[in-house]
Design goal:
heterodimer, A: 161 residues, alpha+beta, Immunoglobulin-like, 2 domains, 6-stranded mixed sheet, 2 helices, elongated, B: 547 residues, mainly alpha, 15 helices, 0% strand, globular
Chain lengths: 161, 547
């Protein structure tokens, strides 16, 4: 009798586990779909030597349509180029980022913008900027990239007019 | 006495356990130094070079060396005693030679500052070639070790073909199978890419090498956790004087660990360019699958604890809790480690959800997370197991029972403070692995109190580690000699061992695991190689470009 009871408890628990994990996955899929969430999965490769010579990905900020900004960034030990980005009334920022040397990580503190930057690959990610984002945001390198890693940072300035 | 009939097994266990304690001490010292250094307002004793050297040493010594040597020590003890078999003396000697030799070879460039690449050694950041070769020899040595264990196991299996696998042995086999699933591609990559990179500045593809690293990096987590789980399954029922709640469920958990601990590495690469969303989603689903054996374990151990508490006279919904032997350091250590494993599992599932991961990726949240898993679930369990094993191995009583009892609680409290603070401040965006997070005064002011709280927690559990090692050292030097024979914990009466069932046929599950691994990694590797590699030349941590 006791054994049967224990077997029942095992089945109940297995049921709970399956239900729980399935629920998490469904929520994950829903949020991912509903928010149009994508990971930086762009499959664009580039030649590091050309990047070093400046032949690929000219760094800079461009407003390609009203409120739509394209930001080209280069990572180098130990600086972001450019290290100051200014945007006015942004709706969406498209980041295209690559590295001249080693692996870096681009993270704007206080925002969901956070992705890896590789030499030989161009990472691309889009950020729909919520309307209440205004002011100066620190961006850092969050992947160890050599001894000067902590000095690799910059600022994003969002202006609202 | 303890070593009767198992002379070279005992010798191996003693050497491996002492080497693991030395690694724990040195790795812990590096840990506290770099923690204080990175926390504003704390004693800053290191320059940048020393900080990253300490951080590399901390990671390599604790994540790889301390765990691998302790696990090998306990594996030899468990398998030889539980199965009553002898292990090959030659293979064990070769293991010691290669693993200790490899570790020492890798340690030289770490200590001289020529391998400040951290324990993930992401190419094309370049370390001295001795770092890669030493690590490679260490891993090859563990394969020799696995051969010694499997050889003995096969001998036992021939003798008792119809007997069920004893639980602790199954845990050891699971650990080694996971290790053998995880390490060959890593060794292949290190030899193919990193050694030539270090020797002749061969350019390497970042995404390719990272994918190989994380192919290894996540099963590594289960290489730490499964031995801890095994200790809980084995020792907690013994300490409580009850049978484990469900032997079947424990075995199912081990089989699921074998099946799903490897094909999940991309969840460390959610934010990598060049890997498709589809591949990432596949690995997410598999990661949720490998959460299930942990949840099974959580239920099984909790139910066993309840059983023990009720047997001791505990009544009511929670009354059994107070009847548990909290005054026994072995029980306290294992159970507190188990509780922290629960919290580590919760933050782990969050990390595995790519819609949440981008908030916490590469922040101190992750550091808070793995200090609950490898840093507590595994480490504190190993410490508790030491209180059990060291007296039997060395024939000496624990020097101070009071120190032994205080130690796990102190670790638990310190880790709770540390881990909570790091999880929270990680949500605020503090990057991990960074010498100075003040950013010329631009860092948000709300970071500071949590960083300081983290450092305080770190000091507390570091101090607990010091107490542990001091107690172990004193035990070895001046613990009272045990004269009366100690019963071996692992000895089994084979005639009472139940008949083997389908849950004891590991082979089938290993085959299935290989199929799942091939499918899960076919997708990203097709993308990486199909697109064509994009190699980058090596650069030293000082910023010197080599090609």
């Amino acid at each position: 009798m006791a054994e049967k009871n224990e077997l029942m408890q095992e089945y109940i628990w297995i049921g709970i586990i399956i239900a729980m994990l399935t629920t998490f996955l469904v929520i994950l899929g829903y949020v991912s779909e509903a928010k149009g969430f994508d990971t930086p999965s762009s499959a664009v490769t580039c030649d590091v030597r050309q990047v070093r010579k400046g032949e690929i990905l000219t760094p800079g900020v461009k407003e390609v349509a009203p409120g739509i900004y394209e930001v080209n960034l280069k990572a180098r030990m130990w600086a972001w180029i450019p290290n100051s980005i200014e945007v006015v009334n942004p709706k969406k920022i498209i980041f295209k980022v690559t590295s001249e040397d080693v692996v870096h990580g681009f993270q704007i503190v206080g925002t969901p913008v956070n992705f890896m930057v590789f030499p030989g690959y161009i990472a691309e990610i889009q950020w729909e900027v919520p309307e209440d984002f205004e002011g100066t945001y620190l961006f850092v390198c969050n992947e160890y990239c050599g001894l000067g890693h902590d000095t690799m940072w910059g600022q994003l300035i969002i202006k609202r007019e | 006495m303890a070593g009767q009939g198992y002379e070279h097994e005992v010798k191996f266990t003693k050497i491996a356990i002492i080497f693991s304690f030395i690694s724990l001490g040195l790795g812990g010292l590096f840990g506290i130094l770099q923690l204080l250094e990175r926390t504003p307002g704390m004693p800053q004793l290191l320059d940048r070079q020393q900080y990253y050297t300490a951080l590399t040493g901390h990671g390599v010594l604790l994540a790889i060396v301390w765990t691998a040597f302790f696990i090998m020590a306990i594996a030899v003890h468990v398998v030889s005693r539980e199965l009553q078999v002898r292990l090959s003396r030659t293979l064990l000697n070769i293991t010691l030679l290669m693993t200790i030799g490899g570790t020492l070879v890798a340690a030289v460039p770490i200590l001289t500052g020529d391998a400040a690449v951290l324990y993930t050694f992401y190419a094309p950041l370049k370390a001295h070639v001795a770092f890669y070769l030493g690590a490679g020899v260490l891993i090859l040595g563990t394969w020799v070790f696995a051969a010694a264990i499997f050889k003995a196991f096969i001998e036992w299996k021939r003798k008792y073909p119809d007997k069920a696998l004893p639980i602790a042995t199954m845990g050891v086999l699971t650990t080694l199978i996971i290790w053998l699933e995880a390490t060959p591609p890593l060794v292949f990559m290190v030899l193919k890419d990193l050694v030539p990179m270090a020797l002749v500045n061969k350019p390497v593809d970042v995404l390719e090498t990272r994918t190989y690293f994380w192919y290894f990096g996540h099963p590594l987590v289960y290489f730490w956790i499964v031995p801890a789980v095994t200790l809980w399954y084995f020792a907690i029922p013994k300490l409580l004087g009850v049978e484990i709640f469900s032997r079947q469920m424990a075995k199912v958990a081990f089989l699921l660990f074998i099946l799903a601990s490897t094909p999940v590495g991309l969840h460390h690469q959610f934010l990598d360019p060049g890997v498709s969303d589809a591949a990432k989603l596949l690995h997410t689903i598999l990661t949720f699958t490998v959460a299930s054996p942990s949840l099974l374990t959580a239920f099984n151990i909790l139910a066993t604890l309840e059983k023990g508490g009720r047997k001791a006279g505990g009544k009511g919904a929670l009354g059994w809790l107070s009847k548990l032997p909290w005054g026994n350091p072995v029980f306290a250590g294992l159970t507190l480690a188990f509780i922290m494993f629960g919290f580590g599992g919760i933050s782990g599932v969050i990390n595995a959800s790519y819609t949440l991961n981008y908030i916490v990726h590469n922040t101190l949240w992750i550091v808070g997370h793995f200090h609950l898993t490898v840093g507590t679930a595994a480490t504190l369990s190993f410490m508790a197991a030491s209180y059990l094993m060291v007296p039997r191995l060395f024939g000496r009583q624990i020097y101070s029972e009071r120190m032994a009892l205080a130690q796990p609680y102190l670790w638990f409290i310190g880790m709770a403070i540390f881990s909570l603070a790091f999880h929270i401040v990680g949500l605020f965006g503090v990057p991990r692995r960074t010498y100075d997070v003040t950013y010329a005064g631009l860092a948000p002011p709300e970071w500071l109190p949590w960083l300081i709280m983290g450092a305080i927690g770190g000091v507390v559990f570091w101090f607990s580690g010091v107490i542990f090692l001091a107690n172990m050292g004193l035990t070895l030097i001046s613990g009272r000699r045990i004269t009366e024979p100690q019963p071996c914990l692992f000895t089994l009466d084979f005639s009472r061992l139940p008949a083997a069932t389908r849950l004891d046929s590991i082979k089938f599950w290993v085959g299935l695991a290989i199929v799942v691994i091939l499918i899960a990694y076919f997708v990203p590797f097709l993308e990486i190689y199909g697109r064509g590699l994009s190699p980058a030349p090596p650069v030293t941590p000082e910023g010197l470009r080599l090609g």
